[in-house]
Amino acid sequence: MIDLLELKKIGVQFGDKQVLKDISIKFQPGEIIGLVAPNGTGKSTLMNVIMNYLPPNQGKVILNHELQYSSKANEVKIHQDVSMMPDQSDLYNHVSGKNHLKIYQEMWNSDPKLIDDTIVKLGMESYVKKKTGTYSLGMRQRLCFAMQIVSNTQVMLMDEVMNGLDPTHVELISQILLQKKAEGKTIIIASHLLENLEQYADRIFFMKNGELKLVDDVSPGFSDNKVTTVRVSNFSQELLIVFKEQFPELAVQTLPNGKTLIDVKEQDTITLGAITQYLIAQRLTDFSFGKLTLNDLYSLEYQQS
Amino acid sequence: MWAYFKWELSQFFTNKKNIAVYVILLFLAIYFVLKIAPSYEPIEKVDVAEMEARYTTRDDFIKSVEGKDNIHPSVAFALAIFPGWNEYDKARIDAIGDKDYLKYAEATAGWYLYSDQLIVNSGDFFYNPLYYTYGNNYAHADGHYGYGYTASRFTGYVEGNSELSMELFEERTALQTLQRMLNDYLPIVLFISCIFLSVDIVLKDRRNPSLLKGFPIADWKKLLMKGIVAFIGSVLTFIPLCVGFIVIGLQNGFGDFSLPVPIYSYIEETFTNMPMITFILKNVLFMAIWFLFFIVISLFLSIIVKAEFANLFVSFLLIAAEWIYFERVMGAYSDIERYPTSYVQVGQVISGYRNFVYESPDLTYQYGLTIVGGCTLLLMILTLIVSKFKRFKLIA
């Protein structure tokens, strides 16, 4: 597959703190990448490096195998294909939403029809002609997303795109993201809405200690559609001890949110049946068979002491 | 690039600070029309009572000493020159009475030339007392300049085809008021407006960084567009001032573009007349170059220093510098013509008044354009070069 965007040994250091450590990764066209990590771990920094808003201490960003931020002329060329969603606090309060969309369409010289199409898709018709100073957080967020969609660049970077959005609009934007993916766009999204991200992201990375970790590497088989985990609610310590004695071959972990995860990868149906029987016998009826969710992994990665 | 230009232009004219600049200019224009213009008292005004008093005094003197022998040489001198002088005054008084303005202009031109010839090297006669203000060590020279200026102006009226009037003689018409203001503080007011309009043209983008940083347009193009927008905005500062111009025009007449504007030649020590339209266009061109200079300073400093205060400080220093070093006649022993700051008083440079006060023939319009234009061009090139460096970003 052709790589559209490549990060090569990117390193960023603020004082003594290494925020990004030797990050190398390639992004392909028609791919949605999810970046997941707690605040302040370097997601925005990585995006700023991709945009060259923050030149890295080491490494390089390469677009289409050749273009690098080696000169300001190249930066303009790269920005024609790579854009980042604006922050809603940076909108001009005295300018209408439509004019914001218009400047983005004109600056990237994209199809003017995109403006009206995007307005309709995001349900912005009723307010888009009003000044953005009158908008709610969700309306502003939708406008910022619409601006980037209107720019129609090949690579789109979105930092916390779902912030302040109600579930309807989260779903609406998710659908547009999938549509853009189908058009061959590369979309890199940093988000805390993990369940939502899981729905449409092709690859999800955790950022920890300045490094990018693919969730499939953190939890092998994460993306496979197999039963790998039994998730149990209200598993008491006493019962858990008894369970571990009864099933010593199974790995069991209790998350900070109270859920207990039983690893049943490569277990046969007899074992699965035995587990079910045990849980029912102990009146632990709130359990489910499935796979590890991104929320589970996030909890394991960042919330486990 | 066109899209960016339109965006910058719309931001410029919706910027509250910029709107405030235009509103203040409008208030200044109204204040000028209501308060300052009506109280304008020219030194060389049409004062029939004064002419008659002068005429009568001299006539009485002539009659009292005429035909007498053994008169003092100074009395003889007075007797020799007073009849000619009175002839002019009589002609002026009669012309005013007859409302024959052409004849008045002719007599007045003659009167000022005659008076100046008599007074300039004389210890006995003086120019209009209003030139002799407290602390003015150059009052006599100022009087000589004023009389020469007025003589030239009235000669121009005689030779020209303008419709003459009392307002015209006292330089009260709208175009003459504009001419007087161009010789006064109007250029400074416009330069200060230009500085305030352009001071944040680059640095305002810091308020919306994520929205603007990624625009796929080169920094030098952004700077060029910002410069053009600031220039257009600065040129449009004339519009609020036009209100004053129109009101004065309706009150005192507009004058016409062929009205004579006396221009002083330091070398020949004489005045020649320039048509009003030429004078105004020369002023506009020179001020436009100054506007560009101030705008480029703001652009350059915005990249290098990234502080609006620095833009203001340097620009105001350029305007104020001449006040710091200015001394009458210093041009005779100093190269003041080499400093762009010596050309801030645009109208005075064009009219030759700066040559007169500096006593320097080198402070010319052409040289000023070259110096200020050269500095502007140099700074433009420097800004272009700096904008190409990766370390200098428009939005940090």
TrEMBL record, chain A:
Highest taxon of source: Bacteria
GO molecular function annotations of the record: ATP binding; ATP hydrolysis activity
Occurrences of domain ABC transporter (ranges): 2-234
Pfam family, one: ABC_tran
Keywords: ATP-binding, Nucleotide-binding, Transport
Name of the protein this chain belongs to: ABC-2 type transport system ATP-binding protein
Organism: Psychrobacillus psychrotolerans
TrEMBL record, chain B:
Membrane-spanning parts: 20-37, 185-203, 223-250, 284-304, 309-326, 365-386
Domain of life where this protein originates: Bacteria
Record keywords, A-Z: Membrane, Transmembrane, Transmembrane helix
Descriptive protein name: ABC-2 type transport system permease protein
